[in-house]
Design a protein that fits this description.
By secondary structure, this protein is an alpha+beta fold. It folds into three domains: 54 residues, no CATH class; 40 residues, no CATH class; 58 residues. It is 29% helix and 23% strand. The protein is built from two helices and ten strands, in the order E-E-E-E-E-E-E-E-E-E-H-H. Strand 6 and strand 7 form a beta hairpin. It is rod-shaped and about 110 Å long. The protein starts with a strand and ends in a 16-residue tail after the last helix. It comes from Gilliamella apis. InterPro entries: Phage_T4_Gp38_tail_assem (IPR003458), TFA_Chaperone (IPR051220).
Length: 176
C-alpha cells in the first residue's frame, strides 16, 4: 500500500509526495490511498477524499495587462485576472483579449524622436558653422572652407524647416 500525501495547509491541497504505507493502518489526515492522476498542464489536488486536477501554470511567464511587467507564476490554478501569457510588444495596449498596436503611442514616440533628432542635427550644424566662421573671421581658412560654411548654413536652414511633428519627416542630407 502507498499513502499519497497532499499539503493540507494549502487551500487547494495539492499532491506533494508518496510513501509506502502499512497494510493494517489508515492513511493520515493528509493522505489518500488512491493514486492521483497526472496530466500535462494540471496538478492533482485533494478535494473531499478524491483527487481532482487543477490547472498548473507554475514557472510560466505572465504579463500584467496594465504595466506589461513580466512575472513567473508560483501558484496552482488559473492565471489571475489582470495577467496574460501573451507577451506584449512595443507600443501595444490590451484590448481585453490580446495586445494590439497603439498607433497614438507609436506616433507620439516617432514625433518625439524626430524632434530630438532635429535638435541634435541643428546643434551639430551650429557647432560646425561656428568653427568655420571663426576660421574665416581670423583669416585662417584653407581650401573650400568658405564653401563649406555656406553649405552648413544652408543645411541648418533646411533642418529648421523640417516638420518634426510629421511621423514621416524627411531630414536633409548632411553636407560633406
Amino acid at each position: 500500500m502507498i499513502n499519497y500525501y497532499f499539503d493540507n495547509t494549502n487551500e487547494l491541497k495539492p499532491f506533494t509526495h508518496q510513501l509506502d504505507a502499512n497494510n493494517d493502518t489508515l492513511p493520515p489526515d493528509n493522505a489518500l490511498r488512491i493514486a492521483p492522476e497526472f496530466r500535462d498542464g494540471y496538478w492533482p489536488c485533494e478535494q473531499n477524499g478524491a483527487w481532482i486536477l487543477i490547472e498548473d501554470n507554475r514557472n510560466k511567464t505572465v504579463y500584467n495587462i496594465e504595466t506589461k511587467e513580466a512575472e513567473k507564476i508560483d501558484y496552482l490554478g488559473k492565471i489571475r485576472d489582470g495577467f496574460t501569457l501573451l507577451k506584449p510588444f512595443e507600443f501595444c495596449t490590451w484590448n481585453g483579449e490580446k495586445w494590439i498596436l497603439d498607433e497614438d503611442a507609436k506616433n507620439e514616440h516617432l514625433i518625439k524622436n524626430n524632434q530630438n533628432l532635429k535638435n541634435s542635427l541643428i546643434n551639430e550644424a551650429s557647432e560646425k558653422i561656428a568653427l568655420l566662421q571663426d576660421i574665416i573671421d581670423l583669416d585662417m581658412q584653407e581650401t573650400d572652407e568658405e564653401q563649406q560654411l555656406k553649405q552648413r548654413k544652408k543645411y541648418r536652414i533646411l533642418l529648421t524647416r523640417v516638420d518634426a511633428s510629421d511621423i514621416n519627416a524627411v531630414f536633409p542630407a548632411k553636407p560633406e
